[in-house]
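Let's practice the habit of predicting before peeking. Look at the sequence and jot down your guess about where helices and strands might fall. Then scroll down.
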Amino acid sequence: MVYIGIDNGLNGGIVVIDDNQQIVEKLVMPTIKVGGKTEYDVNEIVNFFNGFFQPNKMFAALEKAHVRPVSGKRACFMNGFGYGIMQGLLESLNIPYEIVSPNDWMKEILTSVNTKDKKGSIMWCKRKYPKEDWTASKRSTKPHDGLTDACCLAVYCYRKNR
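Done guessing? Here is the structure:
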């Protein structure tokens, strides 16, 4: 069985763990440039999911989209758009999933860290998986919070559905 955590933002990520909570694969949310704007690379996302597709042996946790008042119109639209894309892909690929609010997974997973935010997910993932590289690319120096949030979602999914 594999458990998939999905942070569906443009700067999000997808993490897959197994029954031993070991990381099988992780992916920074695939994007492409279209007319100078960043868009989701839906084909790459589908290819990623197809690489793990095993009927009745997968379960996903999709982070619930929410609008932050400080975000601009495009950011809010893209967040909802990405959420819809992920739901559509999971449905069309027959991958069972649950929608999880950020508060729910943070309350469950980030109990050992003092902060319940992006920094908390980075700290938690570094503790649980100390040998794992959480940067977005070889050139990056900072941990990618989209990957760490997705990892926390995958562990939340594992705990709730194993």
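How did you do? The chain has a mean pLDDT of 91.
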